[in-house]
Write a structure and sequence with these properties.
Distance between the termini: 31 Å
Helix content: 10-25%
Structural class: alpha+beta
Radius of gyration: 13 Å
CATH class of the domain at 1-6 and 15-21 and 42-86: Alpha Beta
Number of strands: 4
CATH topology of the domain at 1-6 and 15-21 and 42-86: HIT family, subunit A
Strand content: 15-25%
Low-confidence stretches: none
Shape: globular
Largest sheet: 4 strands, antiparallel
Length: about 90
């Protein structure tokens, strides 16, 4: 259902991207039919964080739309860890 990999321009020591294989442009384009997929993506986040050394805590982020900093128009979840964040 997903592809996960390290960001090529990391913003933290641990910076992973989780991308659904199903194309969804952004959170602005989700509907009730995506509920299970989005739930699975969130459940996957702590597992991937722990496997990559961020078991003590991490930040998740989804940029949405141009004003929200979205640069790639395929929904994806950032997992950032490895240092304290504000």
């Amino acid at each position: 259902d997903f592809i996960a990999f390290h960001d090529i321009n990391p913003r933290a020591p641990i910076h992973l991207l989780v991308i659904p294989k199903l194309h969804i442009e952004s959170l602005q384009h989700v509907d009730a039919s995506h509920r299970d997929l989005l739930g699975k993506m969130l459940v996957l986040a702590p597992q991937l964080a722990a496997e990559n050394g961020a078991s003590e805590g991490f930040k998740t982020l989804i940029n949405t739309g141009p004003a929200g900093g979205q640069e790639v128009y395929h929904l994806h979840l950032h997992i950032l860890g490895g240092r304290p964040t504000a």
